[in-house]
User: Fold these one by one.
Assistant:
Number 1:
Amino acid sequence: MDKLVDNSGRPNYGWIKEAVGEVNYLDFPLANTMDKPLSTGVKQRKFNQFHFIGVLADNFMAGLAIVDLKLISNCFFLCMDTRVRLGDRKKRDQSFGTRHSLIK
């Protein structure tokens, strides 16, 4: 797939089996509540970004998620031993810009 949003402004939804060449989110026809198209600068501020990277192996799962909401950002990392029961798993969550120790 060459672009995520096609030439008519419609995004390709669903399971995408091939790599996307360009995530052209600014080509999406985003409009205000009165259906007036938004400018490119407003679109850049309106779109939120979410990134996720996951690793799956025989004995563990790990995931890193980063969300950018323009005013605030948050990061989440999870590493689990898949041989342990669900109730015994622990997670750590830390927001950017705060002081938080992962060691207690």
Number 2:
Amino acid sequence: MAHTFTITISDEDYKGLQYVAADPDTWFANMVRARCDSGKKDVQAVYLQAKSDAGEAIPAGGVDAHVNAAYDEGIVKTAAQANADAGPPGA
């Protein structure tokens, strides 16, 4: 499944991006992809450590397979789930 994000920025915001990026659309897409890749590597590291600590075999398949397994096995949660589980501040 693929996800599409659409954002609206002001003309001034776009001009600011044009000042720092030759192609703001490509820059933005690359920035999002880089953050996604970083997050996937973080999830994979947590998954591999959890499997190692439990003395369990680590299945082959690469980053995407490990990310899916980490969520499927409940080893990681989304940020929204973790925040909801933590409850309101001071609770």
Number 3:
Amino acid sequence: MESLVGSRSSLPSVRKSITTRKTALVCLENSSNMAGGTVYPTARVDEICDRAHALGLKVHLDGARIFNAATSLGDHVANMTKKLTP
């Protein structure tokens, strides 16, 4: 990395390569650790999945705390994850 950012002449090419990458994946976390344990309602996750899939994007869920979210929502994990990319 030092060789990429150590020279001012290489910075424009690094910036260009970063900004021209296409998004291919949406990553969700439920419950969200960085948001103090905030839980996405299932309908919101479904909406995110529908919009992402319509754009040809895959959707991944970090499931480390999915059972906490399920308990909080009173929902089943299978229902909460039905629209995620397998």
